[in-house]
Every structure is written in C-alpha cells, then in structure tokens.
Amino acid sequence: MNISTPGPTVRPYQSYVYAYPHKTAYRPLAERPALRELWAAEPKDALSLYLHIPFCEVRCGFCNLFTRIGAPEGLVTAYLDALERQAGAVREALGEDARFAAAAFGGGTPTFLEAAELERLCDIAEKGMGADLAAVPLSVEASPATATADRLAVLAGRGTTRLSLGVQSFVDAEARSAVRPQRRAEVEAALARIREAGIPVLNIDLIYGIDGQTEDTWRHSLDAALAWRPEELYLYPLYVRPLTGLGRKEARAPEAQWDAEWDERRLRLYRSGRDHLLAHGYEQVSMRMFRAPGAPATGGEDHACQTDGMVGLGCGARSYTSALHYSFDYAVDMREIRGIVDDYVSRPAADFARAEHGRWMTGDEARRRHLLQSVLQAEGMEHAEYRARFGTDPAEDFPAELARFAERGWLDPDAAPGRLRLSPEGLAHSDALGPELFSPAVRAAMAAYDLK
Question: What are phi and psi for residue 371, nearest 5 degrees?
Fold first, then answer.
C-alpha cells in the first residue's frame, strides 16, 4: 500500500480509505484493556453491530479481505460457537443499556453459511447481543453462487433490508481475468432470486480497470446491472495488492511497477460509469456509491463514522470506541488467516472480554478521521458540525492540506457558505485525497507493518 505524499503528478489510485486508521496501523495491546472499562462512558443508545464471517467458496484475485477458502468439517459450527461466546462476553461488557440502531453481516461471504447456520447467526445477533433485526436496518453481503433461495428466505424473514451482491463484471472473460469464478447466467439467476425474495434494497458491486476491459464492455456491465433497477450501485476501481492472487501474478511480471496508463484508463472508466449512472437518475453519494432516485436509506450507505459506537464480532471485525479502535490480528496470506481463525475458535469466553489489537485515538487522529470520512461523502461536511465536536475549524487544523486540495481543484468553490465539499474531480481523486490526511504516526505504523 503506497501512502506517500504525491508529487507534482498525483497518482489517483493510492489507497481505498474505508476506515481510518487502517488495520495495518494497529498493534498488539500489551495492557489488554477490559471492554467493560472501554465502553463504560461511551454513548450506547444507538450502536452499530457488525458480525464477520471469514469464509468464501473461492478467493477473488483482487481480494485482500480477511477470509479463507472453504471450511473443513465442523469449522463453521466451531466458529459460530466462538461467535456466541464472544457475544456473551461483549454484551456483558456493554451493559443492559446498550441499544443497536443498525446491523450488518459481512466477510468473507456471510451467505457461505447454510440456511440453518444463517438462522443461528441471526439468533446470535438478536438473543446474544440484543439487536432487534426486524426493527433496524440490516445489510448482508452475498455472492452469486451462495445467494440461494433457502438462504435468501432466511435473510428476508429475519428482516434484512439490504443485500449487496458482488458481481464485479457481467462479462465472463472479465470475471475470469479478475479470478471471479462465475458466469453471467449464474449472476442473472441470483439476481432473480434476490428480487423474488423481496429484500427492499439490492446493491450490485462492479469493478473497473480489469485487464481487457474497454469502455464498451464497461458500459455493457453497467447496462446489465441497470436492467435489474438496483436501489444502489457501487463502482470500485481494481486494485492489485500484495499477497492477493493478482498481486502474486504481477510480482512475477518482468517490470511490476506503477502503470500511469492503467491509472488513466481507470479514471476514464470511472468518469464514464459515473456519467452513465447520473444520466439514469442515480445520485452520487461518494466516489463509489450511487443511489437510485427514491431508494430508501437502509444503513448500507458509505459510513462517515464521525461518531463511534461500532461493535464488531468475529475474528475479522473491528470495533470503535472514542478512545480505542480494536480488533483481532490481521493477515492477507491464506496460511496466516487459517491460523488466526483456528486461534479464534479455540478461545474461551473470558478471552473475549478484553481488547487485543488496536490503536489508541488521540485528539488529532479523531479530527483526521472525522474530516477524512466526512469530506469523502459527496454532500461534504458542515464546518459548524466539526466545530461543535472539536472546538476548532478544519481550516485551522489542516491549512496545508486544504490549501493543496483547493489548488488542485479538488474542492467545490460553489459549495454553500460553511460547507466543505469536494468538486467532481475531487471525488474522482478520493483515493489520493484520503491518504494525504493520514497522520505521520499512522503512515509510519502502516509502512512498518509486516504484511503477512
């Protein structure tokens, strides 16, 4: 992951900032603070719950998520047992006044679980953690092969309001190039089942920048997705990261280095896709997210994360308090992931009552996080909102960065007074802008992390 400050030529695709600080900035917590103490003074009336399932039927060539391929006999049951033990310990630490306002199942692929196992997962969220899944937004990730009728029936019956399907491309050759094992016919059948299940919001993920992809084939995938009238569409640039399938392939190439032409091609495809969706009436929510007109907001939006209160369960989940972001160990290599999963399922309940890996959040880091994850939303950020939380103005705290963004044309000069908002070109360069707001300490920690 390259997070160096750009020079005169700004690389548009440096790092997808979906959370700050990144897990590679986390470190083992020698003191292992008790969750009860961490959460004691936190607001707990509107928490978010995230349950992580670290299993996939196959790993896509671009994927660096914390997930393993398949599960030996008994491992899923053992994992759910551990998840249940963790839920008990975390719920006790949170106290009786904890209330959840949103929930999500991610991974991995939550629908890797069979129907009965999904029922149990929902029971852990409801009975173990006290989240009323029928009353709060519930978002679930799925793949075409695992979006079966019986699994979808469970999810719909338990209150799922949003289902996100990882399609990436409707062109079979492009799917193969991205090591995405699917055929368009299978994707279309899965989409039909999702619509039949009646889940209110369908999101389709698509990727641009795949080897061999052209503007015509990209438009073909966009139109194939639009035929299903999805309430949401996410457009992701392809990244080739270390230790992934595509990353290993690139490392074997004779000259594996930054490819300026590929950057330009991805920018061109992004702009084409953005304009195509805007022409079809979709609203741009962030660089990646587009929402259909009139689509309900169901908790699947890009998370600005200005406030904390994220409770994560599972060995790949992270949790956020105002003072500490914490999780379990992180890895990309399959052997390392298997070891972390095996360790997780062997833990007794008492072991889940303390934080293990994380990063303490200073006032400066909280400011960076708030600004970064607010300004990357298309609607931008009110200065008054920032001042109310921190007592300062973003221009006082980040004068050099904001001046640099303005000079590059990344800030909208026509934004309403008191609102900081990116221009269309600024949104297009979100993956360059975000890393420029990383603190020196986080940069150093990420650079020193032994990725495994």
Answer: -65, -50
